[in-house]
């Protein structure tokens, strides 16, 4: 199962080949407890998505583009642990993401739907396992994922008067070499008010500055979305959003 999860970054569907046969209904029934799953819509031109687990809608409101399920600080939806059929749909019938995912009891996961709908009628998806161990007092945890399909390699900077947080040579997730395990890792940083800027592979800094507040004791995912060909900071252009995990 562990090796199957590493394929999600490269697949438009959440497919775990042979997983049902390997696990079986009996093993699924042995899993007790619940897991937390959050869903983020980073899919350009998909105005909203609803999340379904075993064909039952679990998202209370549609997940609009650039937003996450739940609300900041409480984005996780409680899902029974075990092998679950998870799908994302804009209308309840046309699944843009679907597949079986094994969920461990008391674990937390982030599902990012991104890119645009392809010829097969599906989206790309990234599944990360979240370590929600609270930061030590006076610290925050962050990670960054690059989900903008036409941006190429970029450097990300979070800066304020005293600190600079750098993510260098970040590539679009499907074209890079980073694994889900490495993308899932949170970095320990100082809390504070930061401005996020980027620099492209030519060393040019585009006209984009995104303010973000990292609070003491909080955990965040910062992700890029949209296309640079549509501008910077526009509705469909390259932009940066934040998921607050706790």
CATH architecture of the largest domain: Sandwich
Number of helices: 3
- Report the β-strand fraction as a percent range: over 45%
Compute the separation of the termini in Å.
28 Å
Given the helix and strand composition, which structural class is it? Answer: mainly beta
Indicate the CATH class of the largest domain.
Mainly Beta
Major sheet: 5 strands, antiparallel
SSE sequence, one letter per element: HHEEEEEEEEEEEEHEEEEEE
What low-confidence regions span 5 or more consecutive residues with pLDDT below 50?
Answer: 1-28
Bin the helical content: under 10%
Q: What's the helix and strand layout?
A:
Layout: H1 2-5, H2 19-30, E1 34-43, E2 48-53, E3 56-57, E4 63-64, E5 77-80, E6 82-89, E7 97-103, E8 108-115, E9 124-130, E10 140-146, E11 154-159, E12 164-170, H3 180-183, E13 187-189, E14 192-200, E15 210-214, E16 219-225, E17 227-232, E18 237-244
Parallel strand pairs: 1-8, 10-16, 17-18
Antiparallel strand pairs: 1-5, 2-3, 2-4, 2-6, 6-7, 8-9, 10-13, 11-12, 11-14, 14-15, 16-18
